[in-house]
Amino acid sequence: SAVRKLGDRVATMEGAFDQMQEVIERAISLAEAGHPAAVRQCTTDEELREMIAEINRESDGEVKRAPQDVDVIFQAMAGSRVRLHGLQGRPDVNSKVGTLVSFDQSKQRWQVEVGESRPVLLREKGFTVL
């Protein structure tokens, strides 16, 4: 039934959240120790999955599957300060500093607040995390 499917989906999401929480806690402890994989910035889903796999290998020798739904982790990055660059469609905002608001999974774009009435929608290559 639809209720059972929804319950299964919630259980799967809870499991993925628990796994991501463990990975994030490991990443924090490794970053505090200066581990290079935990310190570098990740700007794409694939880079994030690679970083999670590397941290997992370093921590216990076993590679765990990185979650496919990484938008939860993207939400954790919301609030980060970024510098915009390389924008051909909006050259007026190049070099501005903004704040990541949220990641729009359907558009595969970040909403970035740069002091305008509406957030600017950008791919990861359009900004650098400060």
- Fraction of residues in β-strands: 15-25%
Summed over residues and divided by their number, the pLDDT gives a mean of 72
Low-confidence stretches: none
Radius of gyration over all CA atoms, rounded:
17 Å
* Cα distance spanning the termini: 47 Å
**How much helix is in the residues?**
40-55%
Number of helices: 4
Overall strand count: 5
Number of domains: 2
Structural class: alpha+beta
Which sheet architecture does the biggest sheet show?
5 strands, antiparallel
The strands making up the biggest β-sheet line up spatially as 4-3-2-1-5
Order of helices and strands: HHHHEEEEE
Shape: flat
Blueprint of the fold:
Layout: H1 2-32, H2 36-39, H3 45-60, H4 71-77, E1 81-84, E2 97-104, E3 109-113, E4 120-122, E5 127-129
Antiparallel strand pairs: 1-2, 1-5, 2-3, 3-4
Helix pairs in contact: 1-3
Structure description:
- With 130 residues, the chain is of the alpha+beta class.
- The chain has two domains: 2-69, no CATH class; 78-129, SH3 type barrels (Roll).
- 45% of the residues lie in helices and 18% in strands.
- The protein has four helices and five strands, in the order ααααβββββ.
- The protein has helices at 2-32, 36-39, 45-60, 71-77; strands at residues 81-84, 97-104, 109-113, 120-122, 127-129.
- It has a five-stranded antiparallel sheet with strand order 4-3-2-1-5.
- A hairpin with a 4-residue loop joins strand 2 (97-104) and strand 3 (109-113).
- Helix 1 packs across helix 3.
- The chain is flat and about 50 Å long.
- The termini are far apart.
- The model has no long low-confidence stretch (mean pLDDT 72).
